[in-house]
Amino acid sequence: MSKRQGLASKLFAVLGGAGLAIGICATRASAQAKIPPPWTNANFDNRYICSVSSDANQFTGVMKINPSGTGVYTAGTLNASLSPFATFNNAATPPANFCSYALNTRASGYAVGSKGIGTDVLSWTFTAGNAACPPSFVMSDTFVIRNNITANKTVPRTDFTSNNFLGQHASTVAPQDPGYGQCLK
Question: Is 32 in a helix, a strand, or coil?
Fold first, then answer.
């Protein structure tokens, strides 16, 4: 066998192996990219922890929400920075610089469209923190269900935007302060 024939056969073997690997990877990638049509409220179920920031990243919060998979929430909490409502005090104990809220489940709910885009209304009631925290407010959000469902057909991650994060749509502090974040299971 000549050197050229040996080199050609090695090149053919390498290219054949690479083609096989690409074929296997492409099959897996296309299988993962399939969207389970249609999306429903049932895909947004169980507990999510959400990190939320304002558009200018001045206001932050952490939400724990429990969607039921039927369009209603069964529970929820929100711990937010005091900064949209009063001046942060370096000398104060940590709870004095935060506002804690419970989700009013009777006044809150969500709907997921068939393409995985959802909307919700979250009604929050003050439970603890600084006296400058508002007694209640309502947030309205739009969220996107990510295309990575679990074996029980729920989604471990969503991304969202808040039309009026911390109810700041009519505030003198921020005339409109949209927020954004991610929720993880």
Answer: helix
pLDDT in tens, 122-162: 999 999 998 899 999 999 899 988 777 777 777 778 888 88
Q: Are 82 and 65 in contact (CB under 8 A)?
A: no
Integer Cα distance of 50 and 183 in angstroms: 4
Q: What is the spatial distance between Cα 88 and Cα 81, in angstroms, rounded to a whole number? A: 9
pLDDT at 25: 46
- Count CA atoms closer than 13 A to 153's CA, side-chain side: 10
**C-alpha Rg value of the chain to the nearest Å:** 24
Q: Are 51 and 180 within 8 A, CB to CB?
A: no
Q: Among residues 70, 72, 68, 64, which one has the least CA distance to residue 48?
A: 64
C-alpha 71/C-alpha 111 separation (Å) is: 6
Q: Tell me how far apart the alpha carbons of residues 113 and 95 are, in angstroms, rounded to a whole number.
A: 38
Q: Is 167 exposed, middle or buried (0-12, 13-18, 19+ CB in 10 A)?
A: buried
Contact (CB, 8 A) for 49 and 76: no
> Are 114 and 39 in contact, with CB atoms under 8 Å apart?
yes
